[in-house]
Amino acid sequence: MKLKKWLYNHVTIFRKDANRILFNEESEDKVTLKIKEKFQKEKQFIKESEYNGSEMPIKMKKQLDIFIHVLLILSIIAMAIHFVFVGKVSGISMSPTFEDNQIVLTTAYTSLSYGDIVVYQDVNNDFKSSRVIKRVIALEGDTIYCEDGVVYVNGKAIEEDYIVGTTSDFDEVTIEDGEVFLMGDNRENSVDSRSVGTLKTAYITKKVVM
């Protein structure tokens, strides 16, 4: 009976912790630390029970194990809800990588790399939409130009097996600090840095993950 009450109390506490994560009442790191501490206490309880000759019923052990796994899954889902966002593509400028009206998943980012697909917040009305999805072609400090349909970054031709259409030629551009050169994969149907110029990285809000 004592063991059953102990299990019920711990299940209730874990459920409250999971709710705090889901509704952002407490940070994931803080709650995760509390969960780890509770796990350690449970382990110690089981060890002491075995040492003292009292045996936790097999059914109880299985139920506890199942609950722990469910709790971990809930924690992962909660973090996904907090960090991953759903968006929809508008237009064909990123075709064939992403088609018009396709649903995509995006996340916050800490750094940019060549080839990243990002969401750009259009604050200067350079594009038809307030938010556009484009690919990172060149980063701050780089030079970029296009000759005979081939794009060169820092003097080296880059491989672009993801594009359709021909890239229109443009003169060499140096990317200033805090800026980036973005292009759509559908080169003949994309308004991008070739026409509007380099863009501020500060207005890149998310990175497309899939």
From TrEMBL:
Keywords: Hydrolase, Membrane, Protease, Transmembrane, Transmembrane helix. It catalyses: Cleavage of hydrophobic, N-terminal signal or leader sequences from secreted and periplasmic proteins. The keyword Hydrolase applies. One of its GO terms (biological process) is signal peptide processing. Residues 70-209 form the Peptidase S26 domain. GO terms for molecular function: serine-type endopeptidase activity; signal peptidase activity. CDD domains: S26_SPase_I. GO terms for cellular component: plasma membrane. Its EC number is 3.4.21.89. It comes from the Bacteria. It is found in: Cell membrane; Membrane. It is a single-pass type II membrane protein. Its main location: membrane. The chain crosses the membrane at residues 66-85. The keyword Transferase does not apply. Belongs to the peptidase S26 family. PANTHER family: CHLOROPLAST PROCESSING PEPTIDASE, SIGNAL PEPTIDASE I. This is Signal peptidase I. It comes from Eubacterium oxidoreducens.
